[in-house]
Write a structure and sequence with these properties.
Elements: H1 2-22, H2 27-35, H3 40-47, H4 61-71, H5 115-130, E1 136-142, H6 146-162, H7 166-171, H8 180-196, E2 199-200, E3 205-212, H9 214-223, H10 226-237, H11 244-249, H12 252-271, H13 275-281, E4 294-301, E5 304-312, E6 317-318, E7 323-324, E8 327-328, E9 332-333, H14 334-346, E10 350-355, E11 364-377, H15 385-396, E12 403-411, H16 414-423, E13 427-436, H17 442-449, E14 452-459, E15 472-484, E16 491-499, H18 504-509, E17 515-516, H19 519-523, E18 527-538
Parallel strand pairs: 1-2, 1-3, 6-9, 11-18
Antiparallel strand pairs: 3-4, 5-11, 5-12, 7-8, 10-11, 13-16, 13-18, 14-15, 14-17, 15-16
Helix pairs in contact: 1-4, 5-8, 14-15
Amino acid sequence: MADTSASAEAEARSILERAAESSFPPLHAVHHLLSVGVCVRCILRLLGAYSSACSHASLTASALHSFLEVHDDSIKGGSCPCLSMNDAYCSVCLGVLLPAFHRDKGLETPNGISHIDNISSMMSQVVQREGYQVDEFSLEISLPPVIAANERAIRLYMKQKYVNENWFKDKMFPQQTISVKEALRLLIAPSLEKLMNAKHGNNSFRIRLAYNHGDASQKLHSLLPNEHSRKRKTDSRNGGDTSNEAHKRNSADGNNKQTSESDSFIYKTLEGIQDQDFCNVFQLPPEKVFKPCHLVISCLRSPIYLGGRYLKLSRNVSQSCWIIDDERMGEASVEEIVGENVRAICRGDSCKFHAAGREDIDVRMLGSGRPFLVEVLNVRSIPSETEVQQIEERINNSEKKYVRVRNLKLVGNEIWTMMREGEAEKQKQYTALIWTSRNLTDDDLHNISITKDMEIVQKTPIRVLHRRSPLERKRIIHWMEIEKVTGSSSYYLLHLCTQAGTYIKEFVHGDLGRTHPNIGAILGCRAEILQLDVTDVKMGFLQ
């Protein structure tokens, strides 16, 4: 442990000596920044020298103080008076980059472990507790806007104090400096990579650090112009509820979005304030802080998609869960049967079912099946090919045999767009059991079979007028074939291929003249549909 400590001190000295050679201001200015509560990391960061040192956890307040005691003639043989403020957190970053002693429950730093290693350890524990399987991750960091206000206040304060000194004009506070957010990311990423044995990069699995400082943020809000206050009141009336019940109602992702929108408005408000007005409103330098930020660590994986084709073999199973007045319609749904089996293997929070069109509850989906996607949210593990095969087998071997799936596989989200775009262009094939009020002649059967690319006009069917707009739609019947059911005189099997969006039931019986022409009108008799099956959905993917 002693060797490790000595090595860290030597590393810190080397960092500070390089900074002193390149861009350090006079030591009295460093003393002054320390005395107003700026941490060593923010001092170097604002000098523009921090990017080369930001991955070194050894850079601490005591390291800077030791450096000053050696290099500052005014305090040689004594101790730096700025060292006595151990209870204060950085007045710029609020302790995000270099905290004082953590005394909050759950944030106490064990002896011998750096603040950064402690944060990394907590992040790793969250990942493990949630059961995520991770080989790569990205970091998301959310900071309170008051940090940006504090940084601007320090810049303006130093400009007022040292504007006439040459060193300030030449070196102090360059415009292009590393942000607190990026500095923290560079500090944490190497430590977390080692701890989790995973690579940091631009990945769909995100670990989010959300910092908040209630007292400092409250004060910032009170100083902003009235327009911002009115915005905050409006947000509150529109659902910005922070009560426990509201917290239960909102998902973490929804809360993050709301906070992000509010923060964006604050940043815009700050940017719109001129320097002179800023100096008149805000305290320069910013006041010292004696409470740490509150940190919430959360994890989220971007949705994954599994696609394939489903067959629905029952006439009492809906595509999606169908409940009317608390009563389930049908025995089950494709959405539940497929979705729950997928979610169980992927260990996701929830899933969404998307299909290329839909069939009525009493219509079977046969043939090659209907293309579908299952969007699984925040999965703990991405399924392997073997696990995807297991999902397919579990569905197909279920006891009730309501639904089967084919060619299930992991796909990208671009398939969702392709499926939506292809819906209007696809063709669908059907087989319908129909009844006619008279026996059909051979000429009737022939006339049906020679029909090609016939245009029909359909008004919104009466049966769906309560939930669909009353429109008139043109559709194409590409071809039809009809055959007599053996042993009957008035029952026939009608095979047809149509444009997507055609109402087949109405095309058979006419819907009181709302679909024209229709089978009954073509044959000159009454026609009714008894059963309907979808036998093919022609789309060029998820085959």
